[in-house]
Amino acid sequence: KAGVTQTPRYLIKTRGQQVTLSCSPISGHRSVSWYQQTPGQGLQFLFEYFSETQRNKGNFPGRFSGRQFSNSRSEMNVSTLELGDSALYLCASAQGSLEKLFFGSGTQLSVL
Amino acid sequence: GESVGLHLPTLSVQEGDNSIINCAYSNSASDYFIWYKQESGKGPQFIIDIRSNMDKRQGQRVTVLLNKTVKHLSLQIAATQPGDSAVYFCAAWENNAGNMLTFGGGTRLMVKP
Predict the structure, then answer these.
(1) Which residues does B72 contact at the CB level (< 8 Å), separation at least 6?
(2) Residue B32, phi-psi category: left (phi > 0), alpha (psi -120 to 50), beta (remainder)
(3) Rounded to whole angstroms, how far apart are CA atoms B22 and A112?
(4) Average pLDDT of chain B?
(5) What average pLDDT does this structure show over A67-72?
């Protein structure tokens, strides 16, 4: 069965722009969570969606938002991009809670 | 809140030797721990997990040890191979916290031929 798919793979934006990243979970998985990975901060939790509802949220500003559709696909949006938003954004899916997460390969975002 | 740390940022081992990667966590309420392997250009890949009611779990060439008394876990890789070269992360979460994991900073394992 297909793994977690993230698009696009690479993205270059300039400060002040906004960006939308997409994630398609493994078929049958209803939980989708997002993580930001940077060399300095490591992997940090952004938010998690389950059945179209945000179930958990990390400690990120309101510029970071997300949503989940009825088919479990998820998008995250970052508005008013800052240089510090340059990172690898990882999406992970799971069947429910306390299940091991399956990660996608990520979207590498560069903000110039 | 939870914080998870790793003792060494880089570990270099000889091919065929055993590797031990350590991790400390701060929240005694954490009850589920996972080790991930991340290769360059890829997302983290599940290696092995352990619940807090266990102190040891074995997989294929990997063993995770959990010491709840000192809030420490380790990943042991037997007969390390070049394909094991990657960054290894430990992650922890609390019961009823949904799927929010707190990750350690990562240890880069380099295998010398």
Answers:
(1) B22, B23, B24, B25, B66
(2) beta
(3) 36
(4) 88
(5) 96
**What tens digit of pLDDT does each residue of B51-91 get?**
999 999 999 999 999 999 999 999 999 999 999 999 999 99
Which residue among B99, B103, B105 places its CB closest to the CB of A48?
B99
Name chain A contacts of B44, Cβ cutoff 8 Å: 43, 90, 103
Angle at A106 between CA A60 and CA A74, to 5 degrees: 65
B42 touches chain A (CB under 8 A): yes
DSSP secondary-structure letter at A83?
A: G
Contact between B112 and B10 (Cβ < 8 Å): no
Confidence of residue B37 (pLDDT cuts 50, 70, 90): very high
Instruction: Return the biggest CA–CA distance within chain A.
Output: 38
Residue A76 forms contact with B (CB below 8 Å) = no
